[in-house]
Amino acid sequence: MRDDRFIRAYQRVSPSPEARKAMLAHVLASREAPVQTGGKRRAVSFGRLLPAACAAAVLLCMFTIPQLFTVEEAPVVIQQVAPGADSPNGMRKTMNYNGLRYVFLENGAAYDLDPSVLSQPLGTLNYDIQQAPETYGFADCAASFAVGGTVYQIDGYDPAFRLAVEWEGQYYIAQCVDTLDGSPLELSRYFDAANLRNRTKEIQICDHAGQNVLCTFTADDAAELLSLLPRAVPAELTNEEYQEIARAQRSGGSYQLVFRLEDSTSYTMYVIPSLSVVSAGDNYYHMPDEYAQQLQDMFSDIPQALLPMG
């Protein structure tokens, strides 16, 4: 392919047979011309003509031959083209694939994905969870949305973080939130799969409901939080701990973290510093004691108002 591009480019600048004959005759005449003395300049020798001709040829090729080296590509930017909507029965829009549960971004919003950034088809969503939740709720290739859609891997994204689904001419993005067999979803491995350390441009710290942005972490603060959060370990909560979490959510002790990614999408999780609790996807995590104080210190100067009781 590159050889063909080179040949086509050379043909555009290659002289015609008549021009080559004229050029050869000119060079031979220059070599045979006598040296003139007196007030007239000496004829230009072939030895002096050759370097200049080579330099001109090089410059000509630089500006006419297509670039043969690959330029580093910019990050994929994913634009939403149609908003999502709640399911009529209120069921969350999910799909199961390869032992993991995924949730469709923005409640099933459609995105502008170029087919060139998608892999070969990985499978089809054959089973409708809404038709038989007990049968298909934990089955691979089952979904409550986009049933019949085709699953693809997105270039640059680990399938353990996000997948694409093409359904009825539209593209959707599904994000991993849990495992299907109940095994722990390690937060450190998830952060690595999502590559959040490199993809995150900034982290917005919001109230629990996400209605107000309380502050924004950038640079060092964002890097510290991105290094701290993956240290949380899967938690098995008691009923009392669930009640404490609910109280913290109502009393302004819970924060929603919105990771603004370089692809124009976002990733959301929650922290309750006072309880050393982290929530990501469908799972809760505990921050180990040796890092709990660091988490509390990062949020100590970010107060928020109480949520209205509903």
Would you mind describing this structure in some detail?
The protein is of the alpha+beta class and 310 residues long. The chain has 3 domains: 56 residues, no CATH class; 89 residues, Beta Complex (Metal Binding Protein, Guanine Nucleotide Exchange Factor, Chain A); 109 residues. It has 9 helices and 17 strands. A 7-stranded antiparallel β-sheet has the order 12-11-14-15-16-17-13. The N and C termini lie far apart (65 Å).
How is the main sheet built? 7 strands, antiparallel
Tell me how many strands there are.
17
Q: What Rg, in angstroms, do the CA atoms define? A: 32 Å
Unreliable spans are 1-10, 35-46, 56-72
Percent helix, as a range, is 25-40%
Residue-averaged pLDDT, rounded? 84
Structural class, by secondary structure, is: alpha+beta
Count of folded domains: 3
Features:
seven-stranded antiparallel sheet; Metal Binding Protein, Guanine Nucleotide Exchange Factor, Chain A; 310 residues; globular; 25% strand; alpha+beta; 3 domains; 17 strands; 9 helices
Task: Annotate the secondary structure layout.
Layout: H1 2-13, H2 17-32, H3 46-64, E1 79-82, E2 94-97, E3 100-104, E4 110-112, E5 123-124, E6 127-128, H4 133-136, E7 142-143, E8 150-152, E9 162-167, E10 170-179, H5 187-194, H6 196-199, E11 200-207, E12 213-217, H7 219-228, E13 233-234, H8 239-251, E14 255-261, E15 266-272, E16 277-280, E17 283-286, H9 289-299
